[in-house]
Amino acid sequence: MSRAPFEHESPSGDLKSVLTLEQFIINQREHFPHATGAFSRLLRDVSVAAKIINHNIRRAGILDVLGETGEVNVQDERQKKLDEIADQELVRALRRGGECCLIGSEEQPETIPMSPDAQAQERYAVFFDPLDGSTNTDVNASVGTIFSVYTLPEGVRPDDALEVVLRPGAEQVAAGYVAYGSSTMFVFSTGNGVNGFTLDPGIGEFLLTHPDIQIPDQPARYSINEADIDDFSPELRDFLRWLKRKDPDTGRRIRSRYIGSFVSDFHRNLLTGGLYMYPATADHPEGKLRLMYEANPMAFLVEQAGGNATDGRRRILDINPEHLHQRTPLFIGSAALVEAADAFLQGRKTEVTGVQ
């Protein structure tokens, strides 16, 4: 049964009818590929963890949550205190909810088996990057959480599940991210479009503010760390020169914007149109972004929004993962720009036409 919209007071004092995240999930349940109460509760659990993470980020600088823990995580990266907090909150929320029987975290060397709810009809595996861009927290810049959901076949024990859920990203049943910035947004897809919800801190609810997100056809931005340009391939440097050109007819050019938080750069490009790139380099010949925690969920989202995502040769969602922390190059965003990047990288730049 559908639930009515929530009456929400706008800044002007008017009452607006808006859907909360929970109401939206209930109303859209028949469109979910796995329309069960367990699946709906799983999404709710992730959103609850996001609210707690947001609360800690908002108090950074007041509480002792900035800086490093002194530990090095499995990615050989110095762990931030907020990395650890975000990881703990997501694990706690998913364990408490009981709909998830396997967790994979960027901060953990191995998957974490859990005891699934005996009443749950579906069994879910959730992979997440608890706090993407955490190096930005010490300077009050935006960061995010990324998550991905798969189902486990019946009869598979959680202890033996990793080999089963290491499947191409096309088999995800849901994916999303939370962007912690000037506002906090929860953006997700269950394979039926992309919708964005903004947290109202006054009532503690995520409210539907960006229904049916579509990435614009006219790209406005590109995002890449050009400090590494000497380590880029000649083909990629050629593509960047092509990107920087001014359109002779309109005078437009695609502008460079790079925050250094994948969630933040992706979120901006999703709303305004653009391309995010993290290519293979001399230091990271396999790329740096993780396939299971970052590339797959964002590729799932961008395709649902009309965009594209590749590693420069292959569709991201078609890659068969070989291990939990596998890395990949990534070109993701507006379809025309991703296709142009692939053409340059594969020596087919003469096929590229103007996209500005």
Question: Helices and strands in order, then pairings?
Answer:
Blueprint: E1 6-9, E2 15-18, H1 21-27, H2 37-58, E3 68-72, E4 78-80, H3 81-97, E5 100-105, E6 112-113, E7 124-132, E8 143-151, H4 162-165, E9 174-180, E10 184-189, E11 195-200, E12 205-210, E13 221-223, H5 234-244, E14 255-256, H6 262-272, E15 274-278, E16 289-290, H7 291-304, E17 308-310, E18 327-328, E19 330-333, H8 335-345
Parallel strand pairs: 5-7, 13-14, 13-15
Antiparallel strand pairs: 1-2, 3-4, 5-6, 7-8, 8-9, 9-10, 10-11, 11-12, 15-19, 16-18, 17-19
Q: Low-confidence parts, pLDDT < 50 over ≥5 residues?
A: 117-121
Spatial gap, N to C terminus: 45 Å
What string gives the helices and strands in order?
Answer: EEHHEEHEEEEHEEEEEHEHEEHEEEH
Task: Compute the number of helices.
Answer: 8
The number of strands is: 19
Q: What structural class should be given to the helix and strand makeup? A: alpha+beta
What would CATH call the homologous superfamily of the largest domain? Fructose-1,6-Bisphosphatase, subunit A, domain 1
Approximate strand percentage: 15-25%
Q: What's the level 1 CATH class of the largest domain?
A: Alpha Beta
Question: What value does the average pLDDT take?
Answer: 85
Helical content band: 25-40%
CATH architecture of the largest domain: 2-Layer Sandwich
CATH fold-level topology of the largest domain? Fructose-1,6-Bisphosphatase, Chain A, domain 1
What overall form do the CA principal axes indicate? globular
Strand order of the largest sheet: 6-5-7-8-9-10-11-12
Domain count: the total is: 2
Question: So what's the oligomer here?
Answer: single chain
Cα radius of gyration in angstroms: 20 Å
The main sheet comes to: 8 strands, mixed
